[in-house]
Amino acid sequence: MHAHVYIVANKRNGTIYIGVTSDLVKRAYQHRYGLIEGFSKQYGCKLLVWFEAHGSIEAAIAREKQMKEWRRAWKLSRIETDNLGWRDLADDLLGPTGSRPSRG
Prior knowledge:
alpha+beta; globular; 5 helices; GIY-YIG endonuclease
């Protein structure tokens, strides 16, 4: 089973949210369309700007907790190391129409 730690943002250098999921495609879709109540919806964090795969949900949760303790500058540096332009990586996962791809 794969799990991901991910960061969504409302804009470049804006508000960011770190989360964990076992279904990154589904979670990217949920954030993009504001389907998850709470912090990310309240602050408009819809852009998937970074993610990291882990072999288990336990490993992903441990990494998420570690990253949430980081200073903001470290988090921004982590994003920009892999995604200098803060491109919405959900475009690659959700396809050109922005809708969740069908399974199968």
